[in-house]
Design goal:
The chain has 367 residues and is of the alpha/beta class. It is built from 14 helices and ten strands. It is globular, with a radius of gyration of 19 Å.
Length: 367
């Protein structure tokens, strides 16, 4: 079967279709106000990508509880105080013909104590981070916070939400046998450790209705995760009637698994070959060139998530449409280039933490 075209529409069981196969990856940018309300800088950054042709524009991770903040300048969705900014953002994204999706997030033990003002939380006590274990009541509150965040997103006008279950944040911590030592219904077996994600997904669908996109992000490695367990969960979710898309964050779509027994084929292939109903599969991980995006679809993905290339070029999809051999500007890039692409000074400073991304001038080298 021929690979789908990057510019073919993509429908979902619920909610609107993507006009093409380019999804803006949820990207930390530290541009929001300290209380989690949207800033003009973050509004500008995201709406530029919608104007630039992304079929779906996803926000950065937005925390669903104040205690779940993971980094300074993070967007929030835990209070009605966030609604005016979120409403403005959703309307502007949709006005450009892009699907508007908010990512729901909680950092768990990765919430800095100095940022949240108290000890962070985790499925189980974690001496390495000083996190305390969630009580059973707090687990129920956490599930409700994710569902309430989805309801608030819908009220703001977003077309849907993505549940962040990847990258070592709280839902990923529940999945990890290294971090989750609970003895209740949310610990022990792989099924129990994944229960919180399933209940959040089913709760969002029940409360937000049928005309609302619902996605899930998973990552299959690091943080004590086991590829077999994440593959089994992905298989379950790719046929789950509540879900619309599964976003697999793979670090690099061309890499092999780290676990020795699974080497010899790409990590992506362990998910692309899973049976799926109408749930769409997307992949993220160093997709930079037009050829690499096409290759990901040829390898079985339904859509691609673009991160670094979208930082470098707000109109990445339009550039690919105009040039089948398009490749982004070479790294490192100047601050002036990033500013022209809609990054605020705060965001550029954050990107400066990524080795080799931002060019260093002589003044900085002397400091």
């Amino acid at each position: 079967m021929a690979a789908p075209d990057l510019f073919a529409p993509l429908s979902f069981p619920h909610g609107p279709a993507m006009p093409n196969r380019f999804m803006l990856a949820p990207l930390t940018n530290t541009q929001s106000h300290p209380d989690g309300t949207l800033s003009d800088e973050e509004f500008h950054w995201l709406t530029m990508r919608a104007k630039g042709g992304f079929g779906l524009t996803m926000t950065c991770a937005a925390h669903v509880q104040k205690i779940g903040q993971g980094f300074p300048g993070q967007l929030g969705v835990f209070s009605d105080d966030h609604l005016p900014g979120l409403t403005r953002l959703a309307a502007a994204i949709k006005a450009q013909g892009s699907v508007a999706v908010l990512q729901l997030h909680h950092a768990g033990n990765r919430s800095p104590k100095e940022l949240i003002g108290e000890a962070p939380v985790c499925p189980s006590e974690d001496p390495d981070t000083g996190a305390r274990a969630l009580t059973e009541t707090e687990v129920a509150d956490l599930i409700e916070a994710f569902i309430a965040g989805a309801e608030r997103s819908k009220k703001a006008g977003f077309d849907g939400v993505e549940v962040h279950g990847a990258h070592g944040y709280i839902l990923c911590q529940f999945l990890s046998p290294d971090l989750n030592h609970r003895t209740d219904a949310y610990g022990g077996s792989p099924e129990n450790r994944a229960r919180i994600i399933v209940e959040i997904v089913e709760g969002i669908r029940a409360r937000c209705g049928e005309d609302f996109l619902l996605g899930l992000r998973l990552s299959p490695e690091r943080f004590g995760l086991k590829l077999t367990e994440i593959r089994d969960l992905a298989a379950q979710m790719l046929t789950h009637p509540a879900l619309d898309f599964l976003d697999m964050s793979l670090w690099d779509v061309r890499k092999e698994p780290t676990e020795a027994e699974f080497k010899g084929r790409s990590l992506m292939s362990y998910f692309a070959d899973l049976p799926r109903s109408d749930v769409r599969l997307g992949v993220a991980g160093k997709i930079m060139t037009a050829a690499q995006a096409r290759d990901a679809l040829a390898a079985g993905a339904d859509y691609v998530l673009i991160g670094r290339a979208a930082i470098l070029h707000h109109d990445y999809p339009r550039k690919v449409e105009a040039d089948a051999d398009f490749a982004p500007i070479a790294l490192p890039v100047t601050r002036a280039h990033l500013a022209a692409e809609g990054l605020s000074p705060t965001f550029i400073t954050y990107m400066n933490n990524w080795p080799g991304f931002v060019a260093q001038d002589q003044t900085e080298d002397a400091l």
